[in-house]
Structure formats: C-alpha cells, structure tokens
Amino acid sequence: MSAPDFDWHNDDDVVVQEQQAVAVYRNPRGCIVVRQKGDWYGHEDDVWIVIEPDRAGRVAHAILALVEPLPAPGPLSLPAPADRTAAERQRRHRAKRNGPCDRDTVTGDRNGTVTRDAPELFEVHPPD
User: What is the DSSP secondary structure assignment for residue 9, as one 8-state letter?
Assistant: First the structure.
C-alpha cells in the first residue's frame, strides 16, 4: 500500500498530520487553560494559553468559525419502512386474523353502546 516514494509531509493522501496532545482544564484561579505537549519543533516545554472564563465563549466561537462546515449527509441507502409504527403493523395483523372490524370501540357493540351489569345492592352489618 505504501510506495517507496511516499512523502508523509507533502502527499495529498495524508488526511491527518501529526499533532501534539492537547489538554483543556481549569487552573486554581478558575481560568481555562489550553495546554499542548512539548517536544514539538524544538520546544521542550509544554505550551499553554490561559483564558479568562468570561472570554472563553468568544475564543471557542472564533475557533469554530475557522472550521469548515461538515458536508450534508447523503440519502439513506435503505428504503423507508412501509409503516411508521408498530401499532400500524398490529392493526394490519389483527385485521388479517379477525377479518374487518365494524365496531367503533373496543368494548362496545356494533352501535358503539356498552352494556354493563346492573349494580348489586347489599347490606353492611356491623360486627357483633
């Protein structure tokens, strides 16, 4: 896969160049510290930037403004489902199993009325 003439510094196939580790944390004064590991271009010490918390948002927005926007996602490769919910699948299953339903409610008859038993009356006696 790698050719003898491959150049890690100038080849267009290299999509991520080397980069030192970066840490972001708060210092004891509450400031935000962006710190990069040393040993980069002859710097043996870590390099850090200290930002006051009330200015961190402006720095973050400025960094994000320099980032290229992500491309819009392409179309889905899968077809859309035939139904949107499991309830629709269940309705179709019941209709196939039981035949067409001509009731308006689950408990009602064909006219939509519900028949109930008459309440039973009983007497309550105190204990002896």
Answer: T
Amino acid in position 19: Q
Q: Which residue ranges make up each domain of the chain?
A: 22-65
For residue 74, give Cα distances in angstroms to 15, 104, 106.
21, 44, 44
Burial of 127 (0-12, 13-18, 19+ CB in 10 A): exposed
Q: Which two tokens stand for residue 27?
A: 């210092």
User: Can you tell me the distance from the alpha carbon of 89 to that of 83, in angstroms, rounded to the nearest whole number?
Assistant: 7
Whether 51 and 34 have beta carbons less than 8 Å apart is answered as yes
Please, how many CA atoms are within 13 Å of residue 61, restricted to the half-sphere of its CB? 5
Strand, helix or coil for residue 45? coil
Give the tens place of pLDDT for each residue, 2-43.
456 778 778 777 777 888 889 999 999 999 999 988 876 666
The pLDDT of 106-123, averaged and rounded, is 63
CB distance 22 to 36 below 8 Å: yes
